[in-house]
Amino acid sequence: MTTARCSCGAVTLSLPGPSRLVVACHCIDCQRRTGAPFGVGAFYPAETIAVSGEPKEFTRAAASGGKVHSYFCTLCGSTVYWKSSNLPAFIGVAVGAIADATNPAPVRSVFEQSKHAWVEIGGAGVEHFQQSSAPKKPGASD
Ligand SMILES: [Zn+2]
Ligand SMILES: [Zn+2]
Description:
Elements: E1 2-5, E2 12-15, E3 22-25, H1 28-34, E4 39-45, E5 50-52, E6 56-61, E7 67-72, E8 79-84, E9 90-94, H2 95-98, E10 108-110, E11 127-128
Parallel strand pairs: 3-10, 10-11
Antiparallel strand pairs: 1-2, 2-5, 3-4, 4-9, 6-7, 7-8, 8-9
The protein binds zinc ion (ZN) (2 copies).
């Protein structure tokens, strides 16, 4: 069992374990969401995640079309997870909220068109995309 939580712990997710479907995203929205140069999400089938606490939802237009709903703690402000209308069966969990240095590394690096020049998402087999990786969906066999 793996958990992800906000800074204060009021919003906590129970996860079935580490996900190998980890995506680094360099889009401007992820930069603003995290306050960091890029965001990293671990994707899980939605039905495998249990949420405790009462996060607030923030909805924005996705860079790849559709909408992204981010869920954040109203006490400490950390975003813990998000849902995309493009991928309704999945939940993206902020890898930083898992706070486990052994979490699997990204297998995809997307929206590299706005990647900070000094950032390198390395490792063999990482797929790199200037924009989104659509139409390929997380979890699709490829
Ligand atoms: Zn919190
Ligand atoms: Zn992004």
